[in-house]
Design a protein that fits this description.
single chain, 2 domains, Transcription Regulator spoIIAA, alpha/beta
Length: 576
């Protein structure tokens, strides 16, 4: 029997109770294929994160086991990610002060904090943060990361010594030191890079990264390249990690918390996009709140295993999907396969040339750079293309961590820009079409003299209410006949705040002084949910004379206004 907790929070475990045995061969084959790619990638990405190779192996293995229990995607594979590793290195280097032991201790804490933030966000139902970074801005950020990674690997591929830390100094250093390249390293690196590119193109189902790493090992052993100055990985300790936890001062925790929040935002946004895309291909839905919990469990597992923060891995997920993986069991098979290597086959890893790992990383970074999205943005929206390219340039100039803040700031800027000056419309009748429609869309639409039907296509809040007032005044000024009534179609307004309420009241009084009646139609009852219930009820009653259920009833009231005025006048005379 599975508990209610498992049913709610462990969809992977629940899926095993309904497992179809006919899926086993597919899941086994997919798991072995994923392991063949995940292992060399984990080792390679450990260099990006600035840690020993075995830490990359831990980060590739143990998160898969956690996701297999808590994840809602049947295809998603979690593990080291290039962008996440770059952010980790940028976060920890200033705090570690060049001390490798302190760096590793900080990394464990960063992984655990990232995982806790993920779990807290999932339990708080914050899955909507997956949409917090707009697609063009996320693409721009990842493109910047890709360029930083590529330039960062040039010194390992070409075999020269480098000291620069930032993108442009590294690029300048490459140009300056190109003639100092180590020929054996360069020859091996370029050769392995070419093999990797060709294999990915002509045989995408093969574990190209593993083949290149094995080829590099064979070349080093057979040709004695390490004796000629070709850098190799060195010894990799076998067996399970030993958990270590170090206590730091409060300022360190505060700095790490900020970095963990940035990692969580970027890694979840990119990881859940991968999960959603493969779920769509396989015709099922994922639960974004459950994914937050799953990503949290993966990062906690990585931290407990002395690994670095992880997220959804698109390349390994694509391999799983291509090999016909059916369930989360694929992750367990992949993790088990890599554990066997960790226990019994770490010896040959000693001779992995760093040039081979650089080739793996560079090809992965090229895959991270989204040329297609840039091309589509150029064809579709120059404004969003500028935001995308601006984010990329910002990451290259400011660095990885400020780039996260820049991406968030640009997303907020874009959101405020499109909602602060939204589309609006004057409405009229169109012959043969029911309802009222934008007269700019239908030049033959007719309006009623003295009446303006106006629609504001956005929520009405503090940062756009002045624009609303400006547009209403401009519409009245542009009217061909004197305006008696302004009817606002509020059907597109889902949120109002107190600033908007107060300023609309002021506009109503201003227009009333000019003899213009300002009313609304199609107002949603839910607008009052942001205010105190007693105040909302009183306001609703007090403003009943300014509100109509439909545009049609408002127009009817306008057409009958003379009759109403005579009736009201007669009533007031009789009371005298």
């Amino acid at each position: 029997m599975i508990s209610g907790f498992a049913h709610k929070y462990m969809p992977g475990l629940v899926s095993y109770t309904r497992y179809d045995r006919s899926w086993l061969l597919s899941d086994m084959g997919a798991g072995l294929s994923v392991a063949a790619i995940a292992l060399p990638v984990g080792i390679a990405y450990s260099d990006l994160a600035g840690v020993p190779a075995v830490v990359g192996m831990y980060s590739a293995i143990f998160p898969l086991l956690a996701y297999a229990l808590f994840g809602s995607s049947r295809q998603l594979m979690t593990g080291p990610d290039a962008a996440t590793c770059i952010i980790v290195a940028a976060s920890l280097a200033p705090l570690a002060g060049g001390d490798p032991e302190r760096y590793l201790a900080l990394m464990v804490l960063l992984s655990l904090m990232t995982g806790i933030l993920f779990v807290f966000a999932g339990l708080s139902r914050l899955g909507f943060i997956a949409n917090f970074l707009s697609q063009p801005i996320l693409i721009g950020y990842l493109n910047g990361i890709a360029l930083i990674i590529i330039v960062g690997q040039l010194q390992k591929l070409f075999g020269y010594s480098g000291e620069a830390d930032e993108f442009f100094p590294k690029l300048a250093e490459f140009i300056d030191k190109f003639d100092q390249s180590h020929l054996p390293t360069l020859t091996l690196g370029i050769g392995l890079l070419a093999v990797l590119i060709v294999l990915r193109r002509i045989a995408p189902r093969l574990p190209a990264a593993l083949i290149v790493v094995i080829a590099g090992i064979i070349a080093v052993v057979m040709l004695g390249l390490d004796q000629d100055g070709v850098a190799i990985l060195g010894s990799v300790p076998a067996g399970l990690p030993t958990f270590h936890f170090v206590v730091f001062d409060i300022d360190t925790y505060t700095a790490l918390l900020d970095d963990a929040a940035g990692i969580a935002l970027v890694s979840f946004t990119s990881g859940v996009l991968t999960a959603k895309s493969f779920a769509r291909r396989n015709r099922y839905e994922i639960d974004t709140n459950q994914e937050l919990i799953a990503f949290g469990s993966c990062n906690i597992a990585s931290g407990l295993a002395q690994g670095f923060p992880v997220t959804g891995a698109d390349s390994r997920t694509a391999v799983n999907n291509a090999m016909g993986g059916k369930t989360q069991l694929v992750g367990i098979v992949a993790a088990g396969s890599m554990l066997l290597v960790l226990f019994f086959l770490t010896g040959p890893l000693t001779n992995v040339p760093t040039a081979a790992l650089a080739a793996v990383i560079m090809v992965a970074a090229v895959g991270l750079f989204d040329y297609k999205e840039l091309r589509d943005l150029y064809r579709i929206s120059h404004r969003e293309l500028l935001l995308c390219v601006g984010t990329t340039v910002g990451v290259l100039v400011l660095g990885v961590l400020p780039g996260v803040l820049l991406a968030v700031a640009l997303s907020l800027f874009w959101l405020i820009t499109v909602t602060s000056r939204p589309h609006d419309a004057v409405l009229g009748r169109v012959k043969g079409i029911k309802g009222f429609h934008d007269i700019s869309d239908y030049p033959d639409a007719t309006t009623i003299p003295g009446l303006i039907l106006y629609r504001f296509d956005a929520n009405l809040v503090f940062y756009n209410v002045d624009y609303f007032l400006e547009r209403v005044r401009a519409t009245i000024a542009a009217a061909e006949t004197p305006v008696e009534w302004v009817v606002v179609d509020a059907s597109s307004v889902n949120v109002v705040d107190i600033t908007a309420v107060q300023k609309v009241d002021e506009l109503r009084e201003e227009l009333a002084a000019r003899g213009i009646k300002f009313v609304s139609a199609r107002v949603k009852q839910s607008l009052l949910r942001y205010f105190r219930e007693d105040w909302g009820a009183g306001r609703k009653q007090a403003n009943a004379i300014y509100r109509y259920d439909t545009l049609k009833s408002a127009v009817k009231a306008f057409n009958n206004r003379d009759i109403q005025e005579v009736t009201n006048l007669a009533g007031s005379t009789s009371t005298k």
